[in-house]
Amino acid sequence: MLDIINVHKTFNAGTINEKKALNGVNLHLNDGDFCTVIGGNGAGKSTTLNAVAGVWPIDEGAILVDGINITGEPEFKRAAYLGRVFQDPMTGTAATMEIQENLAMAARRGKRRTLGWGITGKEKDEYREMLKILDLGLEDRLTSKVGLLSGGQRQALTLLMATLQKPKLLLLDEHTAALDPKTAQKVLKVTDQIIAEHHLTALMVTHNMKDAIKHGNRLIMMHDGRVILDISGEEKKKLTVADLMHQFEVVSGEEFASDKAILA
After folding, report:
1. How much is the pLDDT for 261?
2. Is pTM, for the whole model, over 0.85?
3. Strand-pair partners of 83
4. Three-class SS of residue 27?
5. Domains in the chain, ordered, with CATH?
């Protein structure tokens, strides 16, 4: 479902601020893979997601989604294949619009607009059923402005909106990092449920080693702009944070230096 082939990206090339962010990233995800991505600051985690999303052009390599080469496609065209949830809960929703209006926008994404844009009674019933999955009481607040919701509620709603049309690939960029631990775990539980229920292929960047181990069927670790560990199946289920740190040190020849990832 996703092929990242020898992707390179350098920012501010030829200047004193030159930064080689991606240094030959290679990754293949099968249909239905839920892959977590871990690594220290500057490892290339979010940069890889931005490369897939088309936030900026890559310098070298290729990116394919479901066999379709999207390397040269602009960001708005890639939206037909991708769903995305950002770290900031305020990014994925329209604060001044109602919950049902946000869901309607997500449902109509990529479709032709007509004069009959209003939300039907049938759609409202469907949205209520969808919102029940979140277990946040939002099914009874369809007309509430999204700006009145908490960060966790907005992030859960964004997740629902991003998966409403079953994207070929779901990108989760530290989507629980800005939430308190209890709310983060609730959003992760909903994430697991939605991905499993719709058989989605997902790439989830996280700074939390425990979450990276607990969620998904596959884990990759990045360092210096490339993938240095790729663990799946039974090996992943048996992993501990200590195991992961040890493997990192063996492969990279360095100590894992991200306190945030270790202590989270």
Report:
1. 56
2. yes
3. 170
4. strand
5. 1-81+171-264 (3.40.50.300), 91-166 (no CATH)
